[in-house]
Amino acid sequence: MNPSNPIIVQSDRTILLEVDHPLHAEARDALAQFAELEKSPEHIHTYRLSPLSLWNAAAGGMSAQSVLELLEQYSKYSIPPNITVDIREYINRYGRIKLIRDGDNLLLTSDDAALITEVTRHKRTQPYLLRQIDRHTLQVDASRRGHIKQALIHIGFPAEDLAGYTDGSPLPMKLQTTTTQEKSFEPRAYQYAASAAFYAGGAPSGGSGVVVLPCGAGKTIVGLVTMADIQRATLILTPNTIAVRQWIQELRDKTDIPPEMIGEYTGERKDIAPITVSTYQILTYRRSAEGQNGEEQAEYFPHFSLFTSYDWGLIIYDEVHLLPAPVFRITAEIQARRRLGLTATLVREDGREADVFSLIGPKKYDVPWRELERQGWIATAECHEIRVGLSEDDQLNYAMAETREKYRIAAENPAKQSITRHLVDHHRDDQVLIIGQYLDQLKTLAEELDAPLLTGRTSNTQREKLYEQFRRGEIKRLVVSKVANFAIDLPDANVAIQVSGTFGSRQEEAQRLGRILRPKSDGGLAYFYTVVTRDTRDQEFSANRQLFLTEQGYRYLIEDAEAILNA
What we know:
By secondary structure, the protein is of the alpha/beta class. It is built from 22 helices and 25 strands. This is DNA 3'-5' helicase.
């Protein structure tokens, strides 16, 4: 007990952290290992202990004792007894049930006979059980390995999967020490460490899991290092065609794999090769099957065959937090393949983090964003929230609008245009992205700023052309919709102005900041501005969007647009 410490642990599993405390940064980094940030107003941040946050900690090697020691180190008061019990209980649940292979049989085992009995009687797990072998062992339907893992996590006992993996087709490859542009190349220490944590030297405990690294920190390189470790045919899934091309470019640039052994499987091409790069969009394309009499039958996904069309030894899920629900379904059925998830944030707006845990795997590696910033691997970023007011007419419209329409009125507030013009002018010598959600708003800004507009309707060819012009400095500013949230390599972008977003999406905020985090050749700062309408749903959603970045150590400077314009 030390009243001068920065945190208070409460019996409802919440943890309060003082922001203006000298030990704030230390305590924040400790809490991020096993708790989730829920609220982040100015002075007190609220974290919560959850089963999933504790299971991820356990999967990463943390013990209940190490969690309790960290809480005691930073807590003002003694830890409530029920919290001590909860932490020990939840962390000890991970691995109490194990999935193992015995020949062709898939077995569930536990030293706890009562727990095995509970599993046999639970309606969620019963459909996947074949028979009970003894008090400690159940035989499971081997084709339903993912489904039993989903069921077990839903009843509160995540399985440790030690059943191993199909080797997959051999693919000898190595990383180059020099790129095609004659630049020296060597993965960074944390990229090697991330791959090693995932692969675990080929042990059954390795081969499935998620690596969490900030945008701009080189998650693609982690994928390449892992491929070089495993040396097997690999399927890479990405958010869009631009990302597909970037992966292919990196493979050609930094490995010795011949171009003909790398295939693109998108809406434009359907090549399958020992390394195939595809999109979630093409995989979730639905087609209606026709019956014998021509009547329409149930929908199916014709491109799911990609998962079984080659003897894959590794499947990489880029931006795994975006994994669509249908791909979860097929992933449940391919648990014998090694699976690597790459992401900047484990946050999912649909709440399916538990499915990522059970089907892709637990978090195997992460580094606080601020730590990589201190080491110079990502740019130092300043975050600003700039608040604007509504006109009298818009205030009346806002007051009378339905709840959902309120956000749009506030997000498209015309008053955002003048402060955006001011910021663009202030950063006239920088590479500026103006990012938003609503096309009418973006079209207006593009016209006012005399800047190209890039949306989902822009062809891939035109997108690549604009990105290349931006990289070369021929274009100093781009107005972009949410298509620019993901997997775009614009290393010289150093200013982002967000005029509207997807409600309270924390993952989107992280992705948008990530667009400007590539380290700058001149060592300069990155600037992230989010323009919100004061005292509206826009401001409320903005507070929620900022949660993840606040957890990573970023602080938003709150400013008044009128004061900036009149300065």
